Amino acid sequence: MKIVIASDSFKGSLSAPEVCEWVACAFIDVLRDVDIVSVPMADGGEGTLEALVKATSGTTVPIRVPGPLLDIVDSAYGVLGDGKTVVIELASIAGLPMVPEKRRDPLQTSTQGVGTALRMAMDAGYRDFIVGIGGSATNDGGMGFLQSLGAKFLDADGQPVRPVGGELGRVRKVDLSGLDSRIESCKIAVASDVENPLCGPRGASAVFGPQKGAKPEQVQLLDDGLDNFAGLVESSLGKSFQHKPGAGAAGGMGFALLALGATIQSGARLVANAALLHSHLVDADYVITGEGRTDEQTLYGKVPFVVAQMGRQHGARPILLSGSLGHNLVWCPESYMTGQNSNLPVPVRSDVLSVFQELFVSLHSIVSRPMTVTEAMNDAKPLLYTAARNVASLLALTKN
User: Fold this and answer.
1) How many structural domains compose the chain?
2) Is 96 exposed, middle or buried (0-12, 13-18, 19+ CB in 10 A)?
3) Is residue 9 very low, low, confident or very high in pLDDT (cuts 50, 70, 90)?
4) What does the alpha-carbon distance between residue 371 and residue 317 come to, in Å, rounded to a whole number?
């Protein structure tokens, strides 16, 4: 029996490689002679660099760059096993967890460090890039990113504007003539699972600003600033990008990358392709996938959804093993829903559950008893091992 383990991280408790390792241990302990292939996954956010480097036997290069608050932080970029493709992960340079909760304010954060990382990689001779832009603390439209690559953003007095979200509305002139000319010879693929436009009710500020610390009155300020900034950049380039899907990703970082000619792709699919997941699924019997919490949002291109689709295409039966399952992934007897008794209750399924049941052989949560989220996260390793061992024990019956 061949089993592929292709899971995302359990955010805040286990990295994707750790999840794969613990599931593999459980399966080997039960099945013993099973053929296990681990492919740690990510969707462009935290863990993307680690997943891709590990899957391709690549290396990491330590760097020091401006962080989300423009202070210098230790980070890294990854070089994939092909020796020519570099992975830059925004979450490890300007990620939300890097900002203390009391200081979370997207008016004061910047993507400058991401541009610095790209420039350093170009200095080292690299021209092929994968940029993961999930998990950001920023809402600066990529102004800091572009500024670090040579662009100039000036106020009404002709003075440089500080490259943070709160200053977008003060920009009156954009000068892109100084952009690093090496970018023209670069190929940049952007890993993202966000399709939002830059501005408006579905834009970066309205949808993602509050989770980054923006107060209600600041959301409109940020949205107006992005609109002002984007209009000036687009006028300078003679092209429009702000309404394209993904322009609003990472507080407008998607917009800045589109302006440089980058292509935005499904983060999970990009990682899966770079890790050659399809080649491992060809002769697999099952593929185990999961994430910290699975709910209806998973169907918008997150790791388990993409892995399950790829598994089905190659004949590998998908099994979901996540930290927790959303309330609409529960199958209730109709008699319970109506308060009536019946010896033969008819199951009631949500539309979301129906989709999951068509995709997966079975759905599992590692939570085994009533517990708080903190308790579940603290005990994630033993809970995951136990749940994986139970799944493996059921699969062992199919071998007999």
Assistant:
1) 2
2) buried
3) very high
4) 31
The pTM of the full predicted model, rounded to 2 decimals, is 0.84
- Residue 273: inside a domain, yes or no? no
State whether 111 and 259 are in the same domain: yes
Average pLDDT of the residues in 234-241: 96
Residues 152 and 234 in one domain: yes
Q: From start to end of the chain, where are the E strands?
A: 2-5, 35-38, 59-66, 72-79, 85-89, 128-132, 152-154, 173-175, 187-192, 263-266, 286-289, 293-294, 317-322, 324-325, 332-333, 347-348, 362-365
Mean pLDDT of 370-399: 93
- Interval 152-205: pLDDT, tens: 999 999 999 999 999 999 999 999 999 999 999 999 999 998 889 999 999 999
Q: How far is CA 175 from the centre of its chain?
A: 31
The residue segments making up the domain with residue 199 are: 48-267
Please, what is the angle between helix 48-55 and helix 267-274, to 10°? 20
Give the CATH number of the domain where residue 96 resides: 3.90.1510.10
Last-in-domain residue among 267, 291, 324: 267
107 within 8 A of 70, measured Cβ to Cβ: no
Q: How far is CA 327 from CA 294, 324, 350, in A?
A: 10, 9, 10
